[in-house]
Amino acid sequence: MLQKGKPIKPLVEEAFPAGFENIHEVVGCTRNKATRVLDGDGRFFLTAEEVRSWAKVLSVEPYELLFEYGCGYERLNSNEINQFVNAAGKSLQIDLVEHAA
Question: Whole-structure pTM over 0.85, yes or no?
Answer without folding.
Answer: no
